[in-house]
Design goal:
The complex is a heterodimer of chains A (492) and B (330). Helices cover 52% and strands 19% of the residues of chain A. Chain A is an alpha+beta fold and 492 residues long. In chain A, strands 1, 2, 3, 4, 5, 6, 7, 8 and 9 form a nine-stranded antiparallel sheet that branches. Chain B has a single domain, classed as 3-Layer(aba) Sandwich (Rossmann fold). In chain B, 33% of the residues lie in helices and 25% in strands. Chain B contains eleven helices and twelve strands. An eight-stranded mixed sheet of chain B has the order 6-7-8-3-9-10-12-11, with helices on both faces. The chains are: A alpha+beta (492), B alpha/beta (330).
Chain lengths: 492, 330
Amino acid sequence: MSRRTLILLRRALHYKSFILGIAILLFFIGLSIYAEVTWPFEEAIVLWNNPEAWLEYPKFAKPEWITVFTGKRELRGSLILDSRVANLTECVVEIYENKSLTMCKDLYKEREILAVGNQRILSVITEITFNYEYDEFPSSGKYEVYVNTTEKVYVDLILVKPNGLEIRLEGGFYTAGTILKTLEVKPGELSRIQLNYAEVVKKTYGVDVDVSKIEPVKLLFIDDKLFIEKGIYKPLNGTYKLVVSIYSTDINATAEIRVLIHGTIYGIAGTDRLGRDLFMAIAWGAPIAIAFGLTASVLSTLLTMVLAAISAWYGGVLDNAMARINEIFMIIPFLPTIIMLRLFYGLDLWGMLWIIILFSVWGSGLKTMRAMFLQIREMPYIEAARAYGASSARIIIRYMVPRVIPVLIPNIVIAIPSFVFLEAALAILGVSDPRLITWGKVLEDAYENAALTQGHYHWILGPAIALFFMAIAFALIGFTLDRIFNPRLREL
Amino acid sequence: MEKSENMSRGDILVIKDLRVWHPVRKLLSIVGYVRAVDGVTFNIPRGRIVAIVGESGCGKTTLARAIMGLIPATSGSIIFEGRDLTKLPRTIIRKWYTGQVGLVQQDPYAAMPPFMTVKGILEEPMKIHGIPKEERSKRVREMLTEVGLTPPEDFVFKYPHMLSGGQLQRVAIARALILRPKLVIADEPVSMLDASVRIEILTMFRELKEKYDLTVIYITHDFATAKHFSDEIMVMYAGQIVEIGDARDIIKKPKHPYTEALISVLPDPDPQNRFTIKKTLPGEPPSLINPPPGCRLWPRCPYVMDKCKREEPSLIEIQDGRKVKCWLYA
């Protein structure tokens, strides 16, 4: 048998379509291995379903390779400005009586205890500088200020643009702890940044600007001259400086600042609404799709074959009973049943797999295969086998099944993508595993969040292309195997 | 020689009043029976080659299949080596009887599973009957040599489609003999083969029969090969045996009108007779669902009498070993 397999394989390699199919399949297998190595299964599920883990990633980021076509410079991932991290790099620290200075390449921190009357006040001034040399605005941003004190603190946060314009992000009293703000604003509301920007522009250029239509994060990075004079939105390139001043009556307090500026591109496949790396979903979708499709296809086809062989070989009452059961299963509507079962029993992907197999076993395939077996049953070599004492089980397994295997193998391969698509279709209908990462679930998420109308094409295209290529791979392999196993088709 | 004398005594197979009727169903009820084999009685002496001759549809293949145990007998008994097959449970038939009888089928191309090698095909019966591995490959080699497929190494890994019809029939014979059976049923083994290969195969078969002390039931529609190959001939007509006798006797002096008619239409090698048109029996063989009353041949018989239409004759022994089922000899 192995000699035969080798011969068949060698013949298959003469077909370019087979090589192409195998190449795509090998790519997906490589992707699966990569996924398993990079994010082990349980870890990947926890990571994917935990929005907290993705806070540092830009949302709706496009794939990185898109810049090859647009030629624009865009911010990749997120710019993270963290006063704690800066302290760890090569810095010069000077300590005076009431004052300490930390000077790094892009961070300057001044900690001083001031005497105001008989009150002693702590002043921490942190300056973070960064370059912004991109053609696109950041997608969004957020900042976090940590002060570990139980008393009141005054926080003042100013962004100094390369042209010297100072925009206040934050200013006021806070009671201790963490201040966590995003640069986003709800539609119809104006944020402090927008108001402050209008004020600053009025003071500097003497014009009134309508800021209600522009997101705060854009105002922070906009080229003011172009905007005021021509109404063009373009980011201003150059060195920005973020100045954080913190004043507190608690002189032992420490203050740290962390600013995140989210870019517009990330990774091979971009990110989704939570900033999750879509490449991870595509990579982990591959092994699940292959496992699901292969198991469903192989098991349902083999079970169909066994049932058909038993039905055809024993005939009589058994055959009749199986034909009636088959007809019942053919009438039961598949989709409503599986949706209902999913609702009542909360099935996971593998639970759904069994139900899909249970339904796929029956149907016209069983009838066709039974007809094939009925024909084979009458072959003289079967009679010969009975004449030398072969048992029914042996006749079915050793004499009848090998005759349908050549028809079966291409069918199994060709049916794999239909099960992968079925899983995706069910996911879009909301019938999917709550934990697993599948291509269908990414598509469902994209669909629910109107990815296409919002212009997030990569969100849909990534998993869709993966699905498409998986179908192509199995179709190419399946059709080639069909030509080899059933050479009569070649004449047509 | 003494052993063979011993063996020739006694009957290996005794068939008594065997009937194989296939029910004809319409809706849910049985409306009639096809009497494919209807009241057949004969015995096969050990070590003989017995030919069953008859036209297509006369029930010879059904008879063979019933003897093989492939289809159940409706009534009657098939006694092989003193044990009645119709009363034996199926498992004993499978474990014991199938090892005692071999079957050679008509179409060698269809008789071989196309996905097995010659080695696989020949080993299958031995695997089923639990013969150990070393013994199996030894026997495959032996058997291939015996049937003239030499050297065996050239054939063991071949698939059926790589062999010619004659070679395949040799493999089929090897498969039938590989379990060392006592009885071989050859159902038209050479009718699908070239005339040039036929004699070769039959001669080989005969040699093997001598070597392995076989008893052979040779089913054919061809008197020429039956005469050449067999010791005894049984003529079948419409599910019944109409004449039994020594092969040469039957061909030289046929007694039953049907045998006579069959033999009269044999091709005649004498050029003198090249223009004579041979007379055949009028009409067609009767329906096996509704056979005519009395003798089944009477509508076509040139010697028909009143008695023939009313009463069925029985198989009467007219000489030693010669039996005829006809009122002419009663």
